[in-house]
Amino acid sequence: xxxxxxxxTPALIDMRGxxxxxxxxxxxxxxxxxxxxxxxxxxxxxxxxAGKSTLMKVLYGLIHHxxxxxxxxxxxxxxxxxxxxxxxxxGMVHQEIVLVNEYTVWENIVLGAxxxxxxxxxxxxxxxxxxxxxxxxxxxxxDPDAQVADISVAARQKVEIxxxxxxxxxxxxxDEPTAVLTPQEIPQLFAELRELRxxxxxxxxxxxxxxxxxxxxxxxxxxxxxRVVATQSAAGTTRAELAALMVGREVxxxxxxxxxxxxxxxxxxxxxxxxxxxGRVRLKDVSLRVRAGELVGIAGVExxxxxxxxxxxxGLLRPTAGTIRVGGEEITHAPILVRRRAIAxxxxxxxxxxxxxxxxxxxxxxxxxxxxxxxLTRWRGLLLDGGAAxxxxxxxxxxxxxxxPGRSAPLRALxxxxxxxxxLGRELLxxxxxxxxxxPTRGLDVGSIEYVHDQMLAMRRAGRALLLISAxxxxxxxxxxxxxxxxxxxxxxxVPVEEATxxxxxxxxLEGNEER
Amino acid sequence: MLMQRILNAALGxxxxxxxxxxxxxAQGYNPLASYMALFEFSLGSPxxxxxxxxxxVPLVLxxxxxxxxxxxxxxxxxxxxxxxxxxxxxxxGGLYLDLPPVLLIPTxxxxxxxxxxxxxxxxxxxxxxFGMSEFIVTLMLNIVADYFTLWAITYPFKDATAYSPMTPxxxxxxxxxxxxxxxxxxxxxxAAVVLMxxxxxxxxxxxxxxxxxxxxxxxxxxxxxxxxxxxxxxxLTGALAGLAGGLLIMGGPHRFLRxxxxxxxxxxxxxxxxxxxxxxxxxxxxxxxxxxxxxxxxMELITNVPSEIALVLQGVLVLVIVASREALHxxxxxxxxxxRAQTSIGRSELT
Lengths: 516, 351
Description:
Chain A is of the alpha/beta class. Among the domains of chain A are: 1-89 and 201-251, P-loop containing nucleotide triphosphate hydrolases (Rossmann fold); 265-342 and 432-511, P-loop containing nucleotide triphosphate hydrolases (Rossmann fold, 3-Layer(aba) Sandwich). Chain A has helices at residues 52-60, 82-88, 105-110, 124-137, 153-166, 186-198, 210-216, 239-247, 306-314, 336-340, 350-354, 361-365, 369-372, 386-399, 416-428, 446-461, 473-479, 502-511, and strands at 11-22, 26-37, 41-45, 67-72, 75-77, 90-93, 171-175, 202-207, 219-224, 227-233, 265-275, 281-291, 294-299, 321-326, 329-330, 343-346, 377-378, 383-384, 434-438, 465-469, 482-487, 490-496. Chain B has a two-stranded antiparallel sheet. In chain B, helix 3 packs antiparallel against helix 12 (279-302).
């Protein structure tokens, strides 16, 4: 299935038989052979844990492979550090952006490689000029004098790319560059990347958003479970074909949501307001309703009040004004345990809020149930019934298809998808009328995402009220009955999904409802 | 996992003994003879063994206190002060109460626990009311307890016939019975370890403490009353340290002498650290520290090596075990990874 690179385009980078084992026993790369041609945009796709990032970190010298060979510009290389890789012309932009907020754009770009005058002082004029020259050459829309703290995430990402270009890198590796961007910002990034390629740069692009991959890249390599399953030209490949290669089976992309009349209002927020310690308004008179059998999706650029809304519902923060009611009962200031009788909560951060990584699967599975389910305790709740806890965990694992080394294994020994299944299963087994899901599929692979979506739709059919917060618009459109857009802490749109388009919602996300 | 811990302990002990031997050689002593003496006077005879166990009581109980606190989240470093307050409470009870032994001994043990719990509870209260870090408050309260108990045994409760600060002896009925060489304080210690292990591993509060210690936010969102649990753990670990003080009085000198607390509680904190907050580990290392300390006293008698060598061995042991724990873990992982890379190329299943 894998095609060799055509002899007409000489390979710039040849990775042959690369093996990487993460201690102690995770085979991350299993005999990977792939080559990148000079001047192409080459996408690496695959599920989470397929080995995309690992492969690129090996190339970049961040981690070291256990076997195999890397040929770069005809020579066998083994970079001991990213510094060596950059010196050789290979640079990588990570998902997390690390810049000095207090510095300007050009200062960040030259940081660590500043031009100096004969006295050893930084030659600010020359530094700024060379940054401006690169910006002009590649037509980046960026002000070199802007302070980094004031610019958008998309602009920061450009600064990261420019840092590498300033260091004369010819191969650019981008790890999920679109993950942090809004739909409107992506086309500009792509235009700039094409410009770079036309100027002779080679771009390796890691992603699991298939439509982007097909739009941008020349060739695509699909990885699955640490192995290359195919390398092919993007033209003439379809999204479904790539998805099938990634997952190893057919994946449905259409909504399986069936129309159903919503029932009574289960969850109601009225005039919810929150001002933080500095007096800044984080939630501005938010009102919203979720009915039984209805799934409401909250869209918005991150940092527009989603976190505060979730924390107000779970009880981590005290709202300044307004009420929250579940099933008619007001819980605005109720203790967390009282809330948890009516609210299932799947948080966005598995290791921080959803579970305890060093604790066993069983110990993670019984949380909250240990206080609400009398079968799990004896002696008026004083003793934990170990046998009952194990049976409960087995039932959860069977119902939600959890693959685990054993129920006494620590949660961290499970893959991300299986960790999320434990957490999701635990919350759904609470039988709460209201289910709050904060980024429930973040960082999961395609197969796990599909599974989580199925479970959410099953809950909707069972008449639960679901509130989904997601940074992924596609997910919201796939699942939600109604879309609520948050912008600067206020609800700026509340529309049935049938009346919404991605463009419309995207515009609300960026501009609010001031002028349309 | 258990094997790795045992290997870690064995390796740490051997390396610490080797380093100790090098230090003794450098000082011109015979390490082999010294270690023989150390062994003989700690484990070598039934009497020595019983003494080692008895001396382990305050070490194990304060170690247990620190291990439970650290594993549950609260940074209770107040064991020295809580031990002293517990000892004082038991002493005062023993001076003024007169009951038959079956009633008096448990009463004084309870008083000792209350004394320790009160002292720890003060720190918990200050944290709940004003958000003061228990880390600092418990440390500072140690100094207060130090001088408060010194004042108490110098003025109100002083033995009028004594020339230095000490209380009179407590009621004869409060002396812990001895069975041959064995002091029954050892039974209290073993009972405390078993009971605490059960509470920690098998009960609902124990589960909530452990999870809260690992990830407090998760426990809180899961509906655990984390603030209440914090106070309970502080009171409980204070009570354990207080009990150590009470048993020290009832089992040993039967009166509060100046310097009674010695270094037991700080050793207890070290024991918790070496044991990585495991409760059986606290028992093991408590006994081991006691063996070194007890044996060193005997060693001093028949060799020229000063008993302070016990402190050197203890210090080296803590450093070696804590340092090798992580190193051993990584080494095991890396060896496993190398094996995997050599054997399983291209053979993983694609499902």
